[in-house]
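This part of the workshop introduces the protein records we will be handling. Getting from the letters to the tokens is the skill we practise here. An example says more than a description, so a record of this kind follows:
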Amino acid sequence: MAYISGGLAMLRSVVSDLPTSEQKIANYILSTPETVVTMTVKQLAEQSKTSSAAVIRLCKSLDLKGFQELKMRIAGDVQKQSTSEYRDINEGESVHHIIGQMTQNGIEIIKETEEMLRLEDVEEAVATIHEAGSIHLFGIGASGLVAADGQQKFLRAGRYVFCLQDPHMAYTTLSNAKEKDVAIAVSFSGETNEVIQFLRLAKKNGMKTISITKYGSSTISQLADIPLYTSATQEAMIRSAATSSRLAQLHVVDILFMSYVSNYYEEVVEYLDRSRAAIDEQK
């Protein structure tokens, strides 16, 4: 990317959950993003009728390095000038329109997820996976399908991977894991009880933990050593948001896997060739 962005999407994702003073700043930025990119912390505090300390706290709430990163992301958003937005499907729409709208929703969710991912977090996650003796993936419902996709991919790369859909079986397997192993938890909300317990057990065993959740503070993202974020899609009446959230999570898994293959190509390529050959022999 020529510039980083995603500041406005981050703000929209968490604004309703922010403390009053930070919410005032977020709403001011969302109403006039073009003016904020040239402001200082003090100027923004004055314009939003808050304080400089509240501006700094907002940047921390967004898990950003500081006000400068927030301004850079907002500047990137202003440059994009995108008019596209996520929208749910309504009753009686034509198949032609549904195809177009779901395609557009998919594009938007992937683009926003790109903006939520920090390069250094992805790199750390990939290195952690490489150093792990085994990988334990877990999710419930649609997130469980994403975890299973991650298992299928990393098995092909020669890794020892567990992904058990039954929580009790997942906990049992995890209880026998080693400190050098890694646990990857997938939950769009970041508040799925079974996944929270999975992460707590992993940390009790001294394992490194990675989470894939929607952007924003959640129990699961706070528990994880390396939190990875997807776009916080809007909840939809007929659950098309589950479709978009699953797509975003799969996108993150694909990024982790492709980065792993690229970084450790010489180690991985032989395993990939073997798995492909084994499948081809069955045709």
